[in-house]
Amino acid sequence: MAPPAALVDLQDPATNGHNPAKSAKVAAVPHTTAVPANGAATKQETIEEMAGQWSDFRFAPIRESQVSRAMTRRYFSDLDKYAESDVVIVGAGSCGLSTAYCLAKARPDLKIALIEASVSPGGGAWLGGQLFSAMVMRKPADAFLREIGVPYEDMDANFVVVKHAALFTSTILSKVLHFPNVKLFNATAVEDLITRKTDDGGIRLAGVVTNWTLVSMHHDDQSCMDPNTINAPIVISTTGHDGPFGAFSAKRLVSMGGLPALGGMRGLDMNTAEDAIVKGTREIAPGLIIGGMELSEVDGANRMGPTFGAMVLSGVKAAEEALKVFDQRKQECSEEMAV
Ligand code: 48N
């Protein structure tokens, strides 16, 4: 089916462009007709009809401010909408994307904010090991590939191979972005956690602190550039193993005294590592679930190297763990103040 043609009400002088309430009604129209705001159906070209007709080709006219408003009004209405989210997922690598997919599919009623520091989501899953193309997943993670429709070579009873890691990552990213209840904020870093003290003197998560990633990288050479915030009863952190941005929430929890110390990722052992990451994916502190390779830094789990089954199944488990505690954490947050 042709992708829905977004309707932007260009005729309304009052908005002169994007009106989040109105143009949110995206209608899927057959690809040969479009129905702009004035209701007059116009024929939509196909690329076959365009071929060879370039001499009098021209785009429909536009004013630059329409482009600016189409971007800014949507972005700022999203910031407003997701300022209070149900779940924040930090890190859109293979684990974070799998988590977002499972959560959004299971609970279309939840508002899910996916925060990714890089301009390009996907983390380490665009390539296999040592920049090679193929991606290996050990069974039973092939079930996730069938779930999202990624073809693979079934090598034998034990593992499968996706011909290019980018085929997996582009597919899961596309699936996640299609969910109406997921908003990806990329080029955006979580640079702190919103916390509350619990009755026993511990820490409960109540959201995340964000900034443009490029701003986060220049706090040392610019005067204070304060962050923004997103409140949420559940934060799922999948920021990868240690590195400039890695293991963010685990490291921050230790620095706040919410975790005694990092376990530190251990040496490579595929058979030990993948089981430990999937089975260990859990709520580390009230409101904070950690999955994927970030968990290896918490538990001192081995690394698995270039096999990705644990990332997707850790995502499946992270979504499950989040839904187990969601109502309780939501209740704790709502007792703070009604907003
Ligand atoms: O791909 P990663 O790094 O992390 P995972 O856990 O999704 O997948 C790990 C996997 O790629 C491996 O490392 C494989 C299996 N190898 C294992 C091994 O033994 O070497 O994705 C984490 C994402 C990245 O896109 C980061 O940019 C992002 O998280 N990120 C952040 N985003 C927002 N705010 C932050 N503070 C932040 N820190 C990291």
Automatic annotation (TrEMBL):
GO terms for molecular function: cysteine-dependent adenosine diphosphate thiazole synthase activity; iron ion binding. It catalyses: [ADP-thiazole synthase]-L-cysteine + glycine + NAD(+) = [ADP-thiazole synthase]-dehydroalanine + ADP-5-ethyl-4-methylthiazole-2-carboxylate + nicotinamide + 3 H2O + 2 H(+). Its cofactor is Fe cation. One of its GO terms (biological process) is thiazole biosynthetic process. GO terms for cellular component: cytosol; nucleus. InterPro entries: FAD/NAD-bd_sf (IPR036188), Sti35 (IPR027495), Thi4_fam (IPR002922). It comes from the Eukaryota. During the catalytic reaction, a sulfide is transferred from Cys-224 to a reaction intermediate, generating a dehydroalanine residue. It is found in: Cytoplasm; Nucleus. Binds 1 Fe cation per subunit. Residues 1-21 are annotated as: Disordered. Keywords: Cytoplasm, Iron, Metal-binding, NAD, Nucleus, Thiamine biosynthesis, Transferase. Belongs to the THI4 family. NCBIfam families: sulfide-dependent adenosine diphosphate thiazole synthase. This is Thiamine thiazole synthase. It comes from Saxophila tyrrhenica. The gene is THI4.
